[in-house]
Amino acid sequence: MKYKLIALDVDGTLLNDNHELTPATAETIKKIAEQGTEIVLCTGRAPGSSIPFMKQIGLDGYIITHNGAATVNIQTLEVVHEFELNPLALTPYLDYCRENGVHFDVNTTFALYVQGAAGLSQEALDLYKQFLVVPKELPRWADLSEPIVKVTLTGQKDEMDQVHAELSKWDNSEFTILRSGDFFIDITHKDSSKGAALQKLAEKRGITADNVMAIGNYYNDISMLTYAGLSIAMDNSPLEVKAAAKEVTASNNEEGVRLALEKHCLEQSLL
User: Fold this and answer.
1) What PROSITE patterns does the record tag this protein with (predicted)?
2) Does residue 227 share a domain with residue 215?
């Protein structure tokens, strides 16, 4: 079996636009895992909002979360690796958000914090609920007991386009400023990416890049697509993402993940 490790993005890739994992896709992934292939979700989500999909399929192993900032063992919840952010260096970014009315949240590996959590609008609460998250009140930096791994800025697409353009002009030597969706901008450690985390996990498992497959749909997936021996972009991906991949499959609403896996993994095992 050529592909020993398969990395799957979640939103816009594994899930359809209703944030659903279809039964047929889940069954295909389960069959491939039963052949001995290791499946890892590689997502911008936190562990709490991605582990349920692993369990729904019946998978063990690891998840790469927060766009590569934290890798977690789903059985033990052990943090295998995380990229910690410098809180003091984050302060200008949070000040910018406050001054310009940009919503932001601060993430440790397992928790999400929002300033004024008790006063969040129902619209904001519904958005967090889609990602299986309950925000907590943001404390002082000194009162955070876990490392910060990600800050996410959220807003309408045109607003995020403008914010991303402005922040890209800053001295971002400590951070990666990354569009993780039309409505999201993530601030992570400069060395943090899905590709870097996937490479670390593959090396830990003794797997070379040639034996890794990755499927994704957005800019935050490009690093893992360029690392993997076989990279597949969803049809709903931007052109730059498609250009970074070796193949393009159907969209997330057309079970593109299932079709790609059947083509490259399931069928070859039955020959």
Assistant:
1) COF_1
2) yes
Range of 176's domain? Answer: 87-189
pLDDT at 78 over 90: yes
Mean pLDDT computed over every residue of the chain: 93
Would you list the DSSP string of 113-146? EETTGGG--HHHHHHHHHTT---EE---GGG--S
Distances from the Cα of 89 to the Cα of 41, 84, 94, 174, 187, angstroms: 30, 12, 10, 8, 11
170 and 115 assigned to the same domain? yes
Taking residues 124-146, report their average pLDDT.
85
Q: What Rg do the C-alpha atoms of the chain give, in angstroms? A: 18
Q: How confident is the model at residue 269 (pLDDT cuts 50, 70, 90)?
A: very low
Residues 96, 124, single domain; the answer is: yes
Q: Which of 189, 210, 245 is the last residue of a domain?
A: 189
Query: How many domains is the chain partitioned into structurally?
Result: 2
Provide φ and ψ at 256, rounded to 5°.
Answer: -60, -35
Question: d(Cα 200, Cα 206) in Å, to the nearest integer?
Answer: 10
